[in-house]
Design a protein that fits this description.
This protein has 14 helices and eleven strands. By secondary structure, the protein is an alpha/beta fold. An eight-stranded parallel β-barrel has the order 3-4-6-7-8-9-10-11, surrounded by six helices. Helix 9 crosses helix 10. It is globular, with a radius of gyration of 20 Å. The two termini are about 35 Å apart.
């Protein structure tokens, strides 16, 4: 069993990574249904929260069926981060997660996200004060370091644990790498194998097959895997990994009926959550992924991403299920 503070999780839990414009409530709910043990919101700007920006506050919405769920916030100003903690608490998440890893320029340029990797003292101070400011467990998501020459993740993890952080998820790249090259899990294993560490250490980066999740567990000894890009268009990835762990065999490919049902469910939840117009518009990036790889699919994909009325999109789903019912996914 793995525990984040008092939250009990199964051995080697699978966590849905916070992903901007991806891990909204409908997608998180789908991933939860398919085996994700913990899910995280899109990252939320602390400055946006204290200004009551609509886009930021909307990201605080959570479904009961998502639990345990973490709300992730980012920022570099202590006062703003503490005020945002008070706002986040009102949504009653199970976890508050701090983003010390986002590599995007507009975040880093403000000293937030991975930008804070240049100032480990500030990283430690923010974490310490936030821990003192809430009854909820504080966790951290970060990267190996700013660049190859400044990797101090073993020291960083110790310092975060010492000020009360309850778990750390580490992406196996530096900020300089962005998402290029291969993730390096060896430094994450160093953190886990440090005799001083007693909180869960989760690995992140390039876990895109059940075999890689197994490798992270058995070869690197980590406490769990945080899954990001592999889940986009494939919320079943969590179920696939767990099946592989249990049986040593791959789960049967997800068939057309299941994919169409997931797309329908996703779109309907999005409409229920944010209304017809935004629900249709902002779900486009998701549901076309459900049908990747199908030959001669362009006509249907075009309809999906250009139809403005949900009834038209649902009609396309019906067409797809009827026409491609016998298609064999691999």
């Amino acid at each position: 069993m793995v525990k984040i503070d008092n939250i009990e999780l199964p051995d080697f839990p699978l966590l849905l990574a916070p992903m901007e414009d991806v891990s909204d409530p409908p997608f998180r709910a789908l991933c939860k249904e398919q085996g994700a043990d913990v899910v995280y919101t899109e990252f939320i700007s602390s400055e946006g929260l204290i200004r009551d920006a609509v886009k930021s506050t909307m990201k605080l919405d959570i479904y009961e069926k998502e639990r345990p769920v973490g709300i992730q916030i980012f920022g570099a100003n202590l006062d703003s981060m503490l005020k945002s903690v008070e706002i986040v608490e009102k949504s009653n998440p199970d976890i508050i997660d701090i983003n010390f890893g986002c590599p995007v320029k507009k975040v880093v340029s403000k000293g937030a996200g991975a930008g804070i990797l240049k100032d480990i003292h500030l990283m430690e101070t923010l974490t310490k004060e936030m821990v003192k400011h809430t009854h909820l467990p504080i966790t951290v998501k970060t990267r190996l370091g700013w660049d190859h020459d400044s990797i101090k993740i073993v020291e960083v993890a110790e310092r975060l644990q010492d000020v009360g952080c309850k778990a750390i998820a580490i992406h196996g790249r530096t900020r300089a790498q962005m998402y290029k090259g291969e993730a390096n899990w060896a430094p994450i294993a160093e953190v886990k194998n440090n005799s001083r560490m007693h909180i869960p250490i989760f690995g992140n980066g390039d876990v895109d097959t059940p075999e890689k999740a197994l490798e992270m567990r058995d070869n690197y000894g980590l406490d769990g895997a945080m899954i990001g890009r592999a889940s986009i268009g494939n919320p079943w990835f969590f179920k696939q990994v767990k099946h592989f762990f249990k049986t040593g065999k791959h789960l049967e490919p997800i068939n057309m009926h299941e994919r169409v049902e997931a797309a329908r469910c996703h779109l309907q939840m999005a409409i229920d959550w944010k209304g017809e117009t935004l629900g249709v518009l902002e779900t486009r990036r998701h549901y076309t992924n459900y049908f990747k790889g199908i030959p001669h699919f362009k006509e249907y994909r075009t309809k999906m991403v250009t139809s403005d009325a949900s009834e038209d999109v649902f009609a396309v789903f019906d067409e797809v299920e009827d026409k491609f019912s016998d298609y064999q996914f691999v």
